[in-house]
Sugar transporter ERD6-like 7
Amino acid sequence: MIIYAVLQVVITALNAPIVDRAGRKPLLLVSATGLVVGCLITAVSFYLKVHNLAQEAVPVLAVVGIMVYIGSFSAGMGAMPWVVMSEIFPINIKGVAGGMATLVNWFGAWAVSYTFNFLMSWSSYGTFIIYAAINALAIVFVIVIVPETKGKTLEQIQAVVNP
């Protein structure tokens, strides 16, 4: 837990000044890619455990996978969606749209929490492969849908979002 907390604080602190230089979209893409990698490493650790292969590597892979996931989440997917959301919604719907985005976010968190134990009882490594696939879909979503807002005024962002 201490390593988890330190990692999250350090990555978030190091990432804060990078947001305006690198841009929101690249950080989201790097973050989502790290989420996929973290899930896949964790899936491999569970696969090895279930099949009694390389048992000495299982705990290390599990911890590395979770730390990669946490670090990647802290680097982009934790904060960037909230930053982008605040920039892309017009002022007249910002409150309602922000509320809807928050509702969708919390619904997703609930869905993961609710289904996690069911999925783990079905297949421990399969669970993390599913999560990796969902995060891979997030990469596609960011590439196709999310506009880059770096260095743009709210008026320029609105012109891109609402042509």
Helices lie at 2-15, 18-22, 24-50, 58-77, 80-88, 94-122, 124-144, 154-161. The chain has a mean pLDDT of 90. The first helix runs from residue 2 to 15. Residues 88 and 157 are 6 Å apart (CA to CA).
